[in-house]
Amino acid sequence: xxxALALFAVVTFGTAARAEPVPGMRGVNHIGLTVPDMGQxxxxxxxxxxxxxxxxxxPFRDDKGTFMQDMLNVDPxxxxxxxxxxxxxxxxxxxxxxxxxPDQQTIYPKNSDIGGYHIAIYVEDIDKAAEYLRANxxxxxxxxxxxxxxxxxxxxxxxxxxxxxxxxEAISFPQGMAYEKEGGPVLWSNTDPAK
Length: 195
Hints:
By secondary structure, the chain is of the alpha/beta class. Helix content is 22%, strand content 24%. A hairpin with a 5-residue loop joins β3 and β4.
């Protein structure tokens, strides 16, 4: 039985690894975030980070049926009070959600938690970015930290937080990273989006 399960796992995962990609996939369009205060979030993304508000719409609710559960995997009585989309330079758009829901939780996962996340923004001069964030009262962690060894050598990073606790990262690698010299796929670049 154990040998059969092992063979099944090899065949199953081997097949998944060779699967065709989603037809027509072009890239990450947006990152969706649920925020506790839409005004605060829009102000942070626009006034501090330099994103631009593109549009807002809502609310969305279903007071009698299961539309919210069926479409979004949330409580059937959840309400999306507002959705706001932000354009953030030469990078992915940010979609902000303001929800109310009977089962709503407030969770601030760490990077080490399963499901933990952060958003990284590329900056041209990370020292100036760090100085700017700190001067504007934004909580930062240690750094900026230059990476000097391994495939990521050439980048410098600084973790910081949105006012409501969202983890973010400033990253810069103006001369590229060491792995790029080894061939293979190169990560998409904010400084040269056409590549």
